[in-house]
Design brief:
The protein is built from six helices and 13 strands. It is of the alpha+beta class and about 325 residues long. Strands 1-8-9-10-11-12-2-3-4-5-6-7-13 form a 13-stranded mixed sheet. Strand 3 and strand 4 form a beta hairpin. Helix 3 packs antiparallel against helix 5.
């Protein structure tokens, strides 16, 4: 009986831990540390402005929008540091022409932390997960689900004191010895710089559509939006998706794409200095809706790729301390 009780406790702990991980993925901007007072004031001001604008958002012309996109791109390219959240999820439904919902795939990537780009000093939470379904009821459920899919992730804490050295921590249990849950740390040899929407392919995407953005200004923030057909930029989307997951959906091998709809939303804080107006990136959202139908292959696919990025304390991050879970004496080589 005692053994059964212990097993139940372990199962409860594991279940509770997985639930916590899943909930974390639903939060687009959860800070690794407490937010600064200035950050809280900015967010409160924006929330109040969105519900009770004093004068209402003012529209600007396309030329101004294009100039702001240029500044947005330049700010990201020249960034020195930032706190960030970076989220990606895919909703993929495939089947035949007569039965277009035979199988589904959900994939997620989520990361959140702080980084200094010059030295590549960083600390972050990193999570990734994928699930495939062929059960008709679950496929239908995935097809109808609005927003992020539910995927139980594998998650890690990552710390780098500087370029070339990365420590990867995982909270886990030894499945063979069935010991207690604990943090296990090792040196990561193939860890890449976190993708937070500032690599060249993202900047090329913004550049490609900069003349087509609409823009409104509200309470010191600039809101830029584009929505339209994007089938001509399939090679760019193929490059974009590889920054998050491995996929051949937009590769040259796939000539059956029927339509691609693109949505881009950029949010920037407008700050005035003594000499000029500066644009500081705050948020970015990219959504790609893709449809594939081929009667010869009897193939039908609908796919959504969602990219979401948030920036806080842009160019203001100072010291990045190691996570409290890190034990330098227990690192596995």
């Amino acid at each position: 009986k005692k053994k059964k009780k212990k097993k139940k406790k372990k199962k409860k702990k594991k279940k509770f831990f997985l639930i916590i991980c899943a909930i974390a993925l639903c939060l687009p901007l959860v800070a690794c540390q407490q937010k600064t007072a200035s950050s809280l004031k900015e967010e409160q001001a924006r929330a109040v402005a969105s519900k009770h604008p004093q004068q209402g958002p003012s529209k600007t012309n396309e030329g101004e929008a294009s100039s702001v996109v240029d500044q947005y791109i330049q700010s990201l390219r020249e960034a020195k540091s930032t706190e960030y959240s970076s989220g990606f999820y895919r909703k993929y439904i495939a089947g035949s022409i007569s039965k277009p919902a035979d199988q589904s795939r959900n994939e997620i990537v989520y990361r959140e932390g702080k980084i200094q780009f010059d030295t590549l000093t960083l600390r972050e939470i990193y999570a990734t997960g994928k699930n495939d379904e062929e059960d008709s009821e679950k496929v239908k459920e995935n097809e109808l689900r609005i927003g992020k899919p539910f995927v139980v992730p594998s998650d890690y804490v990552v710390y780098s004191p500087g370029r070339g050295t990365v420590y990867l921590g995982e909270y886990s249990q030894d499945l063979f010895q069935k010991g207690p849950w604990k943090w296990k740390w090792k040196k990561a040899t193939d860890y890449k710089e976190p993708e937070i929407g500032r690599s060249d392919v993202y900047l090329k995407l913004y550049e490609a559509y900069k003349d087509k953005f609409s823009m409104t200004e509200d309470n010191g923030y600039l809101y830029l939006k584009y929505k339209g057909d994007a089938k001509k930029n399939i090679p760019l989307f193929n490059e974009l998706i590889q920054t998050m997951i491995e996929s051949k959906l937009y590769s040259n091998e796939n000539n059956d794409i029927q339509s691609i709809k693109l949505e881009i939303e950029l949010v920037a804080k407008k700050e005035k200095s003594e000499t000029k107006v500066q644009v500081t990136p705050s948020e970015a959202r990219i959504v790609i809706y893709t449809k594939i139908k081929d009667s010869k292959k009897d193939q039908s696919i609908t796919n959504e790729d969602h990219f979401e990025f948030g920036y806080r304390d842009f160019n203001k991050v100072q010291e990045i301390k190691p996570p409290h879970q890190l034990d330098m004496n227990a690192i596995q080589e």
